[in-house]
Design a protein that fits this description.
Elements (H helix, E strand, L loop, with lengths): L7 E4 L8 H10 L2 E6 L13 E7 L1 H7 L1 H8 L1 H10 L4 E2 L7 E7 L5 E4 L5 E6 L10 E4 L6 H7 L1 E4 L5 E5 L6 E3 L8 E10 L10 H8 L3
Antiparallel strand pairs: 1-10, 2-3, 3-5, 4-12, 5-12, 6-11, 7-10, 7-12, 8-9, 8-11
The protein binds fe (ii) ion.
The site of fe (ii) ion has 5 residues, from loops.
Amino acid sequence: MLQPFSYWKRDVTSLLDEGWQKDIRAAAAGADFRAFPRTPTLSREASDVTHIERGRVHAETVMERLPWLYKLYRNEFLELAAEAWGEPIDAADDDRYGVVLNVQRGKTMRFECHVDSNPVTGILFLTDHPAGAGDLVVSHDPDAVGVDGLERDCTSIRPEEGQIIFFDGKTYPHYARCLPDESDVRIVAVMNFYTESCPESTRPPELNRHRFGDA
Ligand SMILES: [Fe+2]
């Protein structure tokens, strides 16, 4: 039976590296900003949306520039995910998608309406925003499509710096709202986690073809 949507939240500020804000800002400034094509299989955008403008700090850059974040993903955050889920949890073996940064800058960027391929998603909020600005919106309806569809019946989660959440983004479609000001920057670390019943081997191969050009 489908569990109603819920999420687990913890303040992890004390686990973050000294000077983390400076590191994160610098990495985010160099993000890959562009109109990304909708994701195959997982997109829950309305049919007329072909691209969504946003920024991404790819996994290999996170490993190189934010090694402390990569280490947290594989250790302390993994333990928190297991605590949140009440079962053993695995981090991704493939370093191309374990932990990335999503970055929104200015008023037009948002994150795509989509579902995840992994059963447990961790989001670490790295910037603060007032309610309604850049909220993570999670629909209560697994079949919801498009921004209006997701907004209809949803939980909105305000980004609070230093808070990590874990939720089932595979079942519940989600997206991130736009920011109100041109000078606003929203940064989150997004982490893929797996369970025994839904291991990394279930990741659709077309996702890797789409993102990394795998044969
Ligand atoms: Fe997601």
